[in-house]
Design a protein that fits this description.
heterodimer; A: alpha/beta; Rossmann fold; 4-stranded parallel sheet; 12 helices; about 45% helix; about 15% strand; globular; B: alpha/beta; 3 domains
C-alpha cells in the first residue's frame, strides 16, 4: 500500500518523522515533487481566493497526489506538546482535503491538550491494521530519526555562525523557509550577495527555565510558531546579527500579528529589518532588487 | 491617575447598550464615532495592512473620541479562541502608541470575575450599582435585538415603503438618549405600539434569505452596506441568528458548541476558531428549513470564515440553495456590492418560484 504525503505546509514541521514512521510500519511512502509552477497553478485554481498562499501550494501538492496512491496522509494538527495551538487553518485541512480529492484521506487529530502524541500515533497505527508491537517500534524509529536530524541541524547552525560574512536571519514558518520555489530562492540569493543567511527555526533554544523572562512587554502567544519565533529572536540577538528579513505568505493571518512584534524587537535593537510578502505573482526580479537594496543599507 | 474618560470599541447598534453599561457604573463616557468612510479610512491608515477589517474599523472609531479627550479604552478580546481577535487589544495599544497616543488600555478577558474586578478598579462603583448597570444593559440589548428582528419581518411586508426604517431611526435615537431605567418600559411600549400601527400585507408569501458569517460584519449595518435593509426592500424576509446574545449564550453555556459540532460532523470535525463552525451549522440549518438563499458576510481574509468557505460552497452545490459570499474591507465599494446583491436577488426569486410550482 502506498501512502502519499504532500510535501508542503505541515510536512515541513516534521520533515524526517512521518516518512520514517510509515516506512517502519511497512508502507511505501510517496512524496509529491518539489514545488513547481504546475503545482502552484493547480492549487491556486482550486483554492479559495482569500486563503493564504501556503495553503494554496498545499492544495496543489494534494491534487498532484490524487490517484497516484492509496491513501493521502493529512493530519489535523491542533496543539503541540507545550499545549500551544497551531494555525487555525490547519484544523480544517482534512475536511477540506476530502472535498478536493477522490483518494481516501488518512487522518488523526493531534491535540496534546487532550492526549499524548504517542497515544495518538498508536491510534493512527491501529487504523492501518498494525499491532501494537510494530507501532511502538515505528514510533521509536521515527523519533530517533527526527532527533538525529535535529543534531545535524545544530551542527550546521554552529558552522554557519562561525563564518566571517555578515549574518542575516531569515524569519518565517518552515514551509516558507525550506520551499525554494515559494521563497524564490531567497537563501541562495543572499548567499550570492556575500552574506550568510541563518534560518530562524534552526536556532537552538537552551533548555527552558521555569522562570519567565522579566521583559513583560513581550506578548504571550497562544500559537506555537508565534512563541517559537519570538523566543528564537531573543536567542539570535545574542549572536552578531546584521539584519533580519521576515518572509510571509500573502493573506497569512497569523503573520499579520507576529510581524508587528518581530518588527518591534528589531527596532528596539536598532537592527535593519525587511518584510517581504510572497504570493503566486511575486516576480524574482523585484525580490532581487529589494534584497540588494537591503544589503546596501547594512554597510 | 487622572480621572478616566472612557471610550470603547463600537459595534453597530449595540454601541448604545455598551454606552449605558459604562455610564451606569459611573464612568464618564465619550462614545466612539459612528462608522463612516472617513473613520474607516483613518483606521485603515493606522492599522497594520494585513490585519482584519473589524480592527481597522474600531481604531477608526476611537480616534474622534480620543481627540475629544478620552484617555481610557475598553476593549473586549479573547472571544473566539483561536483567531486573531485575541490580539486586538495588544495590537491596538501598539498602533496607538506608535501614533503618539498614550492611552490606558483595559482589556476585558471574558471571564466574569476578571470583568468584575477590572471595572471595579476603574470605576469604584458599588456591587449593586454594577448589577443595576448590567441589568439595564441586558434590557437594552434584548430590546435592540427584538426590534431588529421585528424590522426584518415588517420591512418586506409594509404597504408604504420606508416606514419601518423611519421608525427604526427614531427608536435608536430615543434609546440612545434614554439614560434612566424608569423611562425604559415607556419607550418599549411606545415603540411596540408604533410597530403595530405599520400597515402590512400579512398574507404575502415571501422568499426567505439568511445572513450568516462573521458576527461583527453580520450585525453592524454600517459595515455591510445595510445588506439586511437592501434585501428587505427587495421583498425578502431576512433571518439571522448571529447576534451578541447568541454569542453570550455560547460563552455561558459551552455545551451549545458540542451540539453544534454533532450536527456538522460530516462536513467539519473540528473548530476553526471564531464562528467558523457556526457558519456551517447555520447554513445546514437554513437548507433544512427550505430557505431560498444564504448570504455569507466576512471581513477580507478572516481566517475562520475563509477556511470554512469551501465547505459552505460544497453545501451550496449539494442542495442548490443560492449562495453569495461577500468579503468586506476598506476598498470595497458600495456599487459593486449593490450589483452583486441585485443579481443574487434575481437568483433567489427564481429559486422561490421554482419551489412553489
Amino acid at each position: 500500500m502506498i501512502i502519499g504525503i504532500p510535501k508542503a505546509l505541515i510536512y515541513w514541521k516534521r520533515t524526517h518523522f512521518w516518512e520514517e514512521f510509515f516506512k517502519s510500519l511497512g508502507f511505501e511512502v510517496l512524496f509529491s515533487p518539489v514545488t513547481n509552477r504546475e503545482i502552484v497553478e493547480m492549487g491556486v485554481r482550486i483554492a479559495d481566493p482569500e486563503t493564504c498562499f501556503a495553503t494554496k501550494v498545499y492544495w496543489g501538492h494534494l491534487l498532484w497526489l490524487d490517484g497516484k496512491c492509496d491513501l493521502i496522509f493529512v493530519p489535523r494538527l491542533k496543539a503541540n506538546n507545550e499545549k500551544l495551538e497551531y494555525c487555525p487553518k490547519f484544523f480544517a485541512l482534512p475536511d477540506l482535503a476530502k472535498i478536493l480529492v477522490k483518494t481516501p484521506i488518512l487522518t488523526e487529530t493531534f491535540d496534546e491538550r487532550k492526549e499524548k502524541i504517542k497515544k495518538t500515533l498508536v491510534k493512527l497505527g491501529k487504523k492501518l491494521n498494525k499491532n501494537s508491537k510494530e507501532i511502538q517500534k515505528a514510533i521509536t524509529d521515527a523519533f530517533l530519526n527526527e532527533e538525529k536530524e535535529k543534531q545535524k541541524q545544530k551542527q550546521r547552525f554552529f558552522k554557519k555562525i562561525l563564518s566571517k560574512k555578515p549574518k542575516i536571519v531569515l524569519i518565517s514558518h518552515p514551509y516558507n523557509l525550506y520551499d525554494v520555489y515559494v521563497n524564490l530562492r531567497t537563501k541562495e540569493k543572499l548567499e550570492r550577495l556575500g552574506t550568510q543567511p541563518l534560518l530562524i527555526n534552526e536556532v537552538p533554544v537552551p533548555i527552558k527555565k521555569e522562570i519567565k523572562p522579566e521583559q513583560s512587554d513581550i506578548i504571550d502567544f497562544h500559537w506555537e510558531f508565534g512563541k517559537e519565533i519570538i523566543e528564537k529572536i531573543q536567542e539570535i540577538f545574542k549572536y552578531d546579527i546584521m539584519g533580519g528579513i521576515e518572509i510571509s505568505s500573502f493573506q497569512c493571518g497569523c503573520d499579520g500579528v507576529i510581524k508587528e512584534f518581530v518588527e518591534q524587537e528589531f527596532k528596539k535593537k536598532k537592527i535593519p529589518f525587511l518584510y517581504i510578502i510572497l504570493d503566486e505573482h511575486t516576480g524574482e526580479a523585484g525580490l532581487q532588487t529589494r534584497l540588494e537594496a537591503f544589503i546596501d543599507t547594512l554597510h | 491617575m487622572e480621572k478616566p474618560i472612557v471610550t470603547f470599541a463600537g459595534w453597530g447598534n449595540y454601541t448604545i447598550a455598551f454606552k449605558s453599561l459604562l455610564e451606569g457604573v459611573g464612568l464618564e463616557v465619550i462614545p466612539p464615532a459612528k462608522t463612516n468612510s472617513k473613520t474607516i479610512a483613518e483606521g485603515a491608515k493606522m492599522a497594520p495592512e494585513m490585519f482584519c477589517f473589524p480592527m481597522k474599523v474600531t481604531i477608526g472609531n476611537y480616534m474622534p473620541a480620543l481627540r475629544k479627550g478620552a484617555n481610557t479604552i475598553f476593549m473586549t478580546e479573547n472571544v473566539g479562541g483561536s483567531c486573531r481577535q485575541r490580539y486586538y487589544g495588544a495590537i491596538q495599544e501598539k498602533v496607538l502608541k506608535d501614533n503618539g497616543w498614550e492611552i490606558n488600555f483595559v482589556n476585558l478577558k471574558v471571564s466574569p470575575r476578571q470583568l468584575y474586578s477590572k471595572i471595579k478598579e476603574i470605576s469604584k462603583a458599588s456591587f449593586w450599582q454594577m448589577l443595576r448597570a448590567i441589568r439595564f444593559f441586558f434590557k437594552k440589548l434584548i430590546l435592540i435585538e427584538r426590534i431588529e428582528k421585528m424590522a426584518q419581518y415588517y420591512r418586506p411586508r409594509e404597504v408604504e415603503k420606508g416606514t419601518t426604517d423611519k421608525l427604526l431611526f427614531w427608536f435608536f435615537l430615543k434609546l440612545e438618549e434614554l439614560n434612566k431605567e424608569k423611562y425604559f418600559s415607556g419607550l418599549k411600549k411606545e415603540v411596540l405600539k408604533r410597530f403595530s400601527r405599520i400597515k402590512i400585507d400579512k398574507n404575502k408569501v415571501l422568499p426567505k434569505v439568511a445572513l450568516i458569517g462573521e458576527i461583527y460584519t453580520v450585525t453592524d449595518s454600517t459595515i455591510n452596506f445595510e445588506v439586511e435593509k437592501k434585501l428587505g426592500n427587495e421583498g425578502m424576509e431576512v433571518h439571522r441568528e448571529m447576534e451578541l446574545s447568541y454569542h453570550l449564550k455560547k460563552v455561558i453555556f459551552p455545551w451549545k458548541d458540542w451540539l453544534i459540532q454533532r450536527k456538522i460532523n460530516p462536513y467539519l470535525k473540528s473548530t476553526v476558531g471564531g464562528h467558523g463552525r457556526d457558519a456551517v451549522y447555520e447554513m445546514l440549518h437554513y437548507v433544512k428549513k427550505d430557505f431560498n438563499g444564504v448570504v455569507h458576510l466576512l471581513p477580507f481574509g478572516c481566517m475562520p470564515e475563509v477556511t470554512v468557505r469551501p465547505i459552505l460552497e460544497k453545501i451550496h452545490q449539494e442542495s442548490g440553495i443560492p449562495f453569495l459570499s461577500l468579503s468586506l474591507d476598506e476598498q470595497v465599494a458600495e456599487a459593486g456590492i449593490n450589483t452583486r446583491i441585485e443579481a443574487f436577488v434575481d437568483v433567489v426569486i427564481n429559486h422561490f418560484k421554482n419551489k412553489k410550482t
